[in-house]
Design the sequence.
């Protein structure tokens, strides 16, 4: 690559430069100053190399936190403007739980931001420190808003290729969440999309223990092969 060629040429010039300085009996401080300048050039070449390989610049924590704060405050337009200027920050984790801008957008169920980031190569396999996937976070958001009927965020993530069965570090899957909170429409949708009802602990048992008997019955009688509930007919 051109970066390696530049580095090779630089090292060759460096040999000539030091030979020249030694021949002229340069002082110790002149040699140190010369070496510092060369080191700075090398660092610039390395950064250029990383930019070409990863399509990104070194991360500025201040900018990353500004993007995350914008998402937290639901400032969608401001967030989009920031991401247009700094697209390389979409998959950068921050904080104790390692939320990326993409994960945080999923957590808030912000479909506009999620769709934009998916077009900008958001990482579907990224997780928080607790093992929560983008899909898991979007499901949690929908459950936290019992009066909401907007499931567009989880639909976007599902059709983008998210795994509906990916658990967190405790082994809890999205179906476990829906069963635990008795969210029948979400439970049915997850089953239709291939959620595994046979994981441990049983989502049906979880729903039953919490008193959501209709949800428990739905899960127990679900026919995975036909993706429908088994009836007595």
Sequence:
């Amino acid at each position: 690559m051109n970066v390696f060629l530049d580095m090779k040429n630089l090292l060759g010039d460096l040999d000539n430069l030091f030979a020249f300085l030694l021949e002229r009996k340069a002082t110790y401080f002149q040699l140190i100053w010369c070496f510092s300048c060369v080191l700075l050039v090398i660092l610039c070449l390395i950064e250029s190399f990383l930019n070409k390989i990863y399509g990104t610049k070194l991360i500025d924590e201040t900018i990353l936190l500004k993007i995350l704060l914008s998402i937290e405050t639901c400032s969608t337009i401001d967030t989009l403007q920031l991401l247009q200027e700094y697209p390389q920050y979409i998959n950068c984790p921050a904080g104790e739980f390692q939320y990326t801008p993409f994960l945080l957008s999923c957590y808030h169920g912000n479909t506009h931001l999620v769709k934009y980031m998916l077009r900008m190569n958001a990482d579907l396999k990224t997780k928080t420190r607790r093992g929560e996937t983008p899909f898991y976070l979007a499901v949690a958001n929908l459950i936290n808003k019992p009066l909401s009927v907007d499931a567009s965020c989880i639909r976007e993530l599902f059709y983008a290729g998210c795994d509906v069965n990916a658990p967190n570090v405790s082994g809890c899957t999205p179906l476990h969440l829906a069963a635990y909170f008795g969210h029948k429409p979400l439970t049915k949708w997850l089953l239709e999309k291939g959620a595994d009802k046979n994981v441990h602990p049983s989502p049906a048992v979880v729903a039953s223990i919490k008193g959501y008997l209709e949800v428990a019955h739905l899960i127990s009688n679900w026919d995975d092969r036909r993706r429908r509930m088994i009836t007595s007919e």
